[in-house]
Design goal:
Length: about 270
């Protein structure tokens, strides 16, 4: 599968649906490759960070798929490239793939969250989707893990032999972690899903569906965690506008601008 791609501030982003991504992961699991695959769900914060932080930028450039986890990212694909780009949200995709797992037999590993959250998520998914195979959980300490801790984490994953490892460490930590260790995790697909662990267990309330459809989930999150997120979003939004204007101008000058909003892309 070769999804259409478009560039956002130097990062290649894929136009891909939840069904196509699920089929891709199922194919990787069946092929048992000798390397790990990486899927990143990147929003405006992640792609601005990738432009400004070389470590994050390198992590996204080496990922197999970078999905547009944010309406503004999908809008770039529509407005500048004329593609039918739609948002593909990490927490939603976790639920979607879990719903298929009783049939496809995928083995899942949950890595991230505060102490006890990964176990809670495992119980939640097993209740929602009887037959799902969850072969391990781990909630690593906050902050930077020691080399000894990382070796233990990797040893547990390798012993469990999962097909999919869901990683909820937050950006950019999870993207850098996946890029650094994918070569040790043969045959596994590593999916960085950020706050999905808290969303799926109900520890953090998600925005109403209408806010998600309108691209206002960030506003809901700011209201929920103002001290942590308001400064981050304020900086990210300003930086995104600058980078978007710069990319638009450069594409217009080079004749690469393909403006348009395909009718098929309006369903977000």
């Amino acid at each position: 599968m070769n999804p259409q791609k478009f560039e956002v501030f130097g990062t290649s982003v894929s136009c891909i649906s939840d069904k196509d991504l699920a089929r891709c992961i199922e194919h990787w699991a069946a092929s048992q490759s000798d390397i790990g695959h990486v899927v990143c769900f990147s929003d405006t914060h992640g792609l601005v960070k990738a432009h400004d932080d070389p470590s994050m930028g390198q992590a996204l450039r080496t990922a197999d798929i970078v999905a547009p986890d944010g309406h503004p990212i999908a809008w770039v694909g529509r407005l500048l490239y004329g593609l039918s780009a739609r948002r593909l949200c990490g927490p939603d995709f976790l639920e979607f793939l879990a719903s298929r797992s009783a049939d496809n037999g995928l083995r899942h590993y949950l890595f991230g969250g505060k102490p006890g959250v990964a176990d809670e998520l495992a119980a939640t998914l097993q209740q929602r989707h009887p037959g799902i195979k969850i072969v391990g959980t781990d909630s690593p300490p906050m902050g930077i893990s020691s080399p000894q801790d990382i070796e233990q984490q990797l040893a547990c994953m390798i012993a469990a032999k999962p097909d999919v490892v869901w990683i909820g460490l937050g950006a950019p930590k999870q993207e850098i972690w996946m890029a650094q260790h994918r070569h040790r995790l043969a045959g596994m697909t590593l999916c960085g899903v950020g706050a999905a662990f808290d969303f799926q267990t109900g520890r953090v309330r998600r925005a109403p569906a209408w806010m998600q459809r309108c691209g206002l989930e960030w506003a809901h999150r700011c209201c929920s965690e103002p001290r942590r997120l308001v400064p981050r979003y304020a900086k990210t939004i300003c930086r995104f506008v600058v980078l978007f204007a710069r990319q638009s101008w450069r594409m217009a000058l080079s004749g690469k601008l393909r403006p348009g909003t395909p009718q098929t892309s309006l369903r977000t």
